[in-house]
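Example S7 (C-alpha cells).
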C-alpha cells in the first residue's frame, strides 16, 4: 500500500545487515540539526536523505530502497551509488592507453556504462571511519577488474557540515588508468516517489553541453545551449522544454546529457546547479570541482520497483545531477583528461547543499 509522503517509516538497520562476497554490509546514519543521511557500504550508496521543507515537515529527497535485497534485485538504476571506475559511457567499451587496447563490457549496448557489470556500485566497500557526521569508505579494484588496467585504491568520504553533504574522492593506481567517479543519487525535492519532477525549477551554470549520437556518446562538439532546450542558465522548470522536438531529447528520451561547467578540474568547489522542489521549497545546490555534470531526467524509470515507504519509481519521478568528467573522455583527446598515473592522486569533490527557497 502506498503511504502518504508524510509518514516516513524509519529504515530498519537489520534489513541492510548481511554478507555479500564474504564482506559485511550495514547501514550508517549521519545526522546533525539540519540533515539526516543514511548510507550503506553496499555500493557506497545514499539510501535516504531527510531535510525539512518550508513548513518544517521532514522530507526524504533521495530515492532508495528499504533493504539490501531490493538493491540487489534492482541494481540497473545505480540508485544513490558511487559509480566507477568510469562513470558514464565509453564508446563500444573500447579505449587505448599508452598503445595498449582495453576491452570493457558493453553493458549498455553498444557501449560501456558506469564501470561495467558490477563496477563500484555493486560491491561492498570497507568502512575506514564512521562517526555521527562522517563516513569514509574504501574499495580496492584489482588490476584488470572490469577490464581496466591498474589496481585502484579508492576512498569516498561523506561528511555532513551544517546543511551540506560533502562527497570527496581520492584514488591512486599502480599503472596508468582512467578514472571518473560520481554519486548517482536520484533526487525528488518534493519527496521521493511523490510525483514527477517536471515542475522542479533547475538552473545549470553551463553555456555549453556535449551533444551525443543516438547511443548517448558525445560527438566531440561543445555546443552552445543558447536557443536550445538545454539552456538552463536562468532558472526554468525541468519540464518546460522536455517535450520539444529536438533530436538530442529524442536520443536521450529526455535529458540525459553532460553540461560543460569548465574546461578542466577546478581547485575549488564551484556552484554548478540549483534545483528547487515546487511543492516543498526545498532547494538543492550542487557545488563541484568537476568540469561536467550530467542531467538525467529519470527517463528509464518505469515504475517497476517499490521504493521506500511503499512508493513507486515511476517515469521521471526523480532526476540525477551527476558531477563528472565528460562521457567517453578516454576516446576524446580534446576533452579534459581522465587518465590517472601512478604516483598521482585523483581528488575531486562535490557538495549537495540544502536550503529553502
Ligand atoms: C546515467 C546515464 C543514463 C542511465 C542512468 C541509469 O544517468 O546517463 O543513461 O543509464 O545513468 O539508468
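Recovered sequence:
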Amino acid at each position: 500500500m502506498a503511504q502518504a509522503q508524510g509518514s516516513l517509516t524509519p529504515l530498519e538497520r537489520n534489513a541492510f545487515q548481511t554478507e555479500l562476497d564474504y564482506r559485511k554490509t550495514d547501514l550508517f546514519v549521519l545526522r546533525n540539526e539540519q540533515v539526516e543521511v543514511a548510507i550503506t557500504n553496499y555500493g557506497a550508496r545514499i539510501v535516504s536523505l531527510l531535510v525539512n521543507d518550508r513548513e518544517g515537515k521532514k522530507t526524504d529527497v533521495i530515492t532508495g530502497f528499504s533493504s539490501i535485497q531490493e538493491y540487489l534485485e534492482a541494481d540497473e538504476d545505480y540508485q544513490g551509488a558511487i559509480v566507477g571506475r568510469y562513470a558514464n559511457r565509453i564508446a563500444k567499451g573500447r579505449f587505448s592507453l599508452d598503445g595498449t587496447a582495453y576491452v570493457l563490457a558493453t553493458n549498455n549496448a553498444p557501449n560501456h556504462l558506469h564501470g561495467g557489470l558490477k563496477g563500484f556500485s555493486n560491491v561492498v566497500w570497507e568502512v575506514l571511519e564512521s562517526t555521527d557526521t562522517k563516513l569514509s569508505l574504501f574499495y580496492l579494484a584489482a588490476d584488470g577488474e572490469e577490464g581496466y588496467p591498474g589496481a585502484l585504491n579508492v576512498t569516498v568520504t561523506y561528511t555532513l557540515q551544517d546543511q551540506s553533504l560533502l562527497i570527496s574522492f581520492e584514488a591512486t593506481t599502480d599503472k596508468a588508468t582512467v578514472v571518473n567517479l560520481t554519486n548517482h543519487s536520484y533526487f525528488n525535492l518534493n519527496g521521493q516517489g511523490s510525483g514527477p519532477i517536471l515542475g522542479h525549477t533547475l538552473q545549470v551554470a553551463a553555456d555549453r553541453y556535449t551533444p551525443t549520437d543516438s547511443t548517448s556518446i558525445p560527438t566531440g562538439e561543445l555546443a552552445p545551449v543558447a536557443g536550445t532546450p538545454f539552456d538552463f542558465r536562468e532558472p526554468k522548470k525541468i519540464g518546460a522544454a522536455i517535450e520539444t522536438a529536438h533530436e538530442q531529447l529524442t536520443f536521450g528520451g529526455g535529458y540525459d546529457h553532460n553540461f560543460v561547467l569548465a574546461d578542466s578540474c577546478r581547485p575549488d568547489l564551484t556552484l554548478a546547479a540549483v534545483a528547487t522542489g515546487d511543492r516543498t521549497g526545498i532547494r538543492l545546490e550542487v557545488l563541484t570541482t568537476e568540469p561536467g555534470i550530467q542531467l538525467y531526467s529519470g527517463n528509464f524509470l518505469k515504475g517497476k520497483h517499490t521504493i521506500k515507504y511503499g512508493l513507486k519509481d515511476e517515469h521521471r519521478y526523480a532526476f540525477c545531477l551527476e558531477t563528472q568528467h565528460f562521457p567517453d573522455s578516454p576516446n576524446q583527446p580534446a576533452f579534459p583528461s581522465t587518465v590517472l598515473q601512478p604516483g598521482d592522486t585523483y581528488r575531486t569533490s562535490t557538495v549537495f547543499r540544502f536550503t529553502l527557497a
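Notes on this example. Residues 77-78, 88, 113, 216, 256, 294, 296, 300, 320, 322 surround alpha-D-galactopyranose (CB under 6 Å).
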